[in-house]
Design a protein that fits this description.
By secondary structure, this protein is an alpha+beta fold. It is built from 9 helices and 20 strands. The strands form 7 sheets. Strands 1-16-3-12-13 form a 5-stranded antiparallel β-sheet, with no helix packed on it. Strands 2-15-14 form a 3-stranded antiparallel β-sheet, with no helix packed on it. A 3-stranded antiparallel β-sheet has the order 4-10-9, covered by helices on one side. α1 runs antiparallel to α8 and α6 packs across α7.
């Protein structure tokens, strides 16, 4: 009779013994695999986080590397309600630093044509087919609408609104109601500017009532009142009248974009175009903050203390040590092309603290506190500040080149990441091979102990048989 389970034949706990032997064989290798898998994952994660931090830092470097960004201008408007302004402005780096007196005399608008009275939207306008052509006076925009025979006022309005080539004309029907109700058709054009007056012509005299120009020439049934005519926006800048087909004035002041929000004839505001000190200061503060985040990340992955968080994943890594050294040398070094005294970050008010991080110190030093040096530099030596960062040997220029080597796709850190990804793949293969080995090892043990169990079962059976035979002999086992 076959043995159904290991140990049943012998009565010994052979199944437990096999499991213990398998566990003893597995334990050292399993521990080694887990340790190496953890190390690879932790190192990969550390390099990925460092690369991400460097990429963020590079964004703030880019802002300071571009001299045009550093030479940006602010456009500040005073003399209007900030909650309900009638003028807004932006300035490019090419805008001259100056002050202007500006008033918004008129907003730009499109034209609006209104028909004579109809009896209702279902009134038939034309018994025969024809076409309406909509165009701006300058001829730059146009489209045509096919009007079928017996088309009603509503049919025409729908055809205009649904036309795929429509450049911005909407058709609406207004019902007056009252004692003598009337229905009128209105064409409204979104094309603004005096040169964009709407013209509606036709090739069927029956459509004259819904055209601004009759088929035979002369006025049609749609009229454009003076207040509904297309017109330019008008601004007075330092007493000089300027015009724009839209409510945006591009380069009416060189390098400045003015947006008219509403008309306020005679109301004057002051526009001051100046160096964007606040914006550049914000960029410098962002640079300091993101540099310190890089320092924090490097310190985290290279810490040697075993307390609390434990050793960093990249302790002793030559790539990280090289990065740290290069960053410190660039940030703490001098810019040879720097103008005047503006050759180092210290002259700008930015210094290293005891933790190796940057700060705009509130403590007094040569030239005052860091805050005072920064404020003075931005207010009196703005071009020198820009050169400190954006010159060919400027701090931001050199940092951008350095960080790109490490953080860009295919850079040094990407190479390190690939090493650990390959290591993970190798460990996965090694684990699969080890699992197959352990399966084979367990099968071999079970085969051996199954054979042993069978032998012991036969011995037990023989022993029982002999004992029963001996017990049946006369006098065996008695006194």
């Amino acid at each position: 009779m076959a043995i159904s389970a290991l140990g049943v034949g012998s009565g010994l706990a052979l199944d437990d013994l096999v499991k213990q032997l398998v566990q003893i064989e597995r334990q050292p290798k399993e521990a080694s695999l887990k340790r190496r898998e953890t190390e690879a994952q932790v190192s990969l994660s550390a390099f990925s986080k460092l690369k991400s931090t460097l990429s963020t830092f590079r964004t703030s470097i880019t802002d300071l590397k571009d001299s045009r960004t550093l030479q940006s201008r602010s456009a500040e408007i005073t003399g209007q309600d900030s909650d309900n302004p009638f003028l807004s402005a932006t300035a490019s780096s090419s805008a001259p630093k100056a002050s202007y007196q500006i008033s918004v005399e008129q907003l730009a608008q499109g034209s609006k044509a209104k028909s004579e009275a109809f009896t209702g939207s279902d009134q038939v306008v034309s018994t025969t087919a024809g076409n309406l052509t909509f165009a701006t006076a300058d001829g730059e925009s146009s489209f045509s609408v096919a009007v079928g025979a017996n088309a009603t006022l509503a049919d025409i309005a729908n055809a205009v609104n649904k036309n795929a080539d429509n450049f911005g004309v909407s058709a609406s029907i207004i019902n007056t109601g009252g004692a003598t109700p009337e229905t009128r058709l209105v064409f409204s054009s979104s094309e603004t500017g005096a040169a964009k007056e709407l013209s509606v012509t036709n090739d069927n005299a029956e459509l004259d009532s819904v055209s601004t120009v009759a088929n035979g020439g002369g006025a049609g049934g749609m009229t454009i009142a003076a207040q509904d005519s297309a017109r330019d926006a008008i601004m007075d800048i330092d007493g000089i009248r300027t015009y724009s087909a839209t409510n945006t004035f591009e380069n009416a002041i060189e390098g400045v974009t003015l947006d008219a929000e509403k008309a306020a004839p005679g109301e004057t505001v002051t526009l001051n175009v100046d160096t964007d000190v606040a914006g550049v200061r914000e960029k410098i503060e962002g640079f300091v903050s993101n540099y310190n985040k890089v320092v924090d990340e490097i310190n985290r992955v290279t810490r040697t203390s075993a307390e609390e968080q434990g050793r960093g994943a990249l302790v002793g890594d030559s790539l990280v040590r090289g990065l740290q050294s290069s960053l410190t040398n660039i940030v703490g070094g001098a810019v040879d092309s720097g103008e005047g005294a503006m050759k180092t970050l210290y002259a700008l008010g930015v210094t290293f603290n005891d933790d190796g991080k940057l700060e705009i110190s509130s403590e007094a030093g040569a030239g005052g506190t860091g805050e005072e040096r920064l404020t003075k530099a931005l207010e009196t030596n703005f071009d020198q500040v820009a050169n400190l960062f954006s010159a060919d040997d400027g701090i931001a220029t050199k940092l951008d080149s350095l960080v790109a080597q490490y953080a860009q796709t295919g850079g040094l850190i990407s190479g390190k990441e690939q090493v650990f990804k390959s290591r993970q793949e190798n460990l996965t293969t090694e684990r699969e091979q080890f699992d197959r080995y352990m399966e084979s090892y367990e099968e071999t043990l079970r085969a051996r102990y199954t054979a042993l169990d069978g032998v012991l079962a036969e011995l037990n059976s023989t022993s029982s048989y002999l004992s029963s035979q001996l017990a049946s002999l006369p006098g065996f086992g008695t006194n």
